């Protein structure tokens, strides 16, 4: 199937995705589908192959591709991601740290390599917390920035935050109730943070 749903509007395309998956499962055949729509691939596929310039860069389940990308291209291609460039400053079997422009970032997994090796750290926007108040009990991966853009998408808000080094990152915050009214607005100074297991270190 080559872009089978490309001509449909968004709502009909979403309905047809589930219908097509059900038909494929009932018939019991293997289908190879080509798509540039990342959400469509995540919804329909049991296995995804990410290709660039004729090369397969990673193969895995949608969850593996999204949560554990193996390189910068895959991380950036599937979903939204913040990439922090830096150097490996701590290298232990079960943890490491990356020295970046916004400070040292703690990571809850090891990575093959050596100290001062250039790496990137990928953190998904929905895994970052944001607040105008300094959070209690957070000692690592806590930074400050200034809100430059805000977008309301109904089920979630998106904030573009300029960090201390001038770089910008994206943070998404779910609206879990009808009364969710964020007190964050443009040009506010905010704290943003994430757990040490939220990021993935990428060597390539």
Key features?
OB fold (Dihydrolipoamide Acetyltransferase, E2P), 12 strands, alpha+beta, 5-stranded antiparallel β-sheet, single chain, 204 residues
Task: Give a quick precis of the structure.
This protein has 204 residues and is of the alpha+beta class.
Describe this structure in words.
By secondary structure, the protein is α+β, with helices and mostly antiparallel strands. Helix content is 18%, strand content 38%. The protein has 4 helices and 12 strands, in the order ααββααββββββββββ. Strands 5-4-3-6-12 form a 5-stranded antiparallel sheet. The radius of gyration is 19 Å and the shape is globular. The two termini are 31 Å apart.
Set down the secondary structure blueprint:
Blueprint: H1 10-27, H2 38-44, E1 48-52, E2 55-60, H3 62-67, H4 72-77, E3 82-92, E4 95-100, E5 103-107, E6 118-123, E7 129-131, E8 142-152, E9 156-163, E10 168-174, E11 189-193, E12 199-202
Antiparallel strand pairs: 1-2, 3-4, 3-6, 4-5, 6-12, 7-11, 8-9, 8-11, 9-10
Task: Tell me, briefly, the overall form.
Answer: globular
Q: What is the average of the pLDDT values?
A: 93
Q: Which ranges are low-confidence, i.e. pLDDT below 50, for 5 or more consecutive residues?
A: none
CATH topology-level name of the domain at 80-204: OB fold (Dihydrolipoamide Acetyltransferase, E2P)
What is the number of helical segments per DSSP (H or I, 4+ residues)? 4
Spatial sequence of strands, sheet with the most strands: 5-4-3-6-12
Radius of gyration: 19 Å
Major sheet size, sense and barrel closure? 5 strands, antiparallel
Helix percentage? 10-25%
**What's the level 1 CATH class of the domain at 80-204?**
Mainly Beta
**Beta strand %:** 35-45%
Number of strands: 12
What do we call the CATH homologous superfamily of the domain at 80-204?
Nucleic acid-binding proteins
Give the N-to-C terminal Cα separation.
31 Å
Q: Assign the structural class, choosing from mainly alpha, mainly beta, alpha/beta, alpha+beta, or little secondary structure.
A: alpha+beta
- Order of helix and strand elements from N to C terminus: HHEEHHEEEEEEEEEE
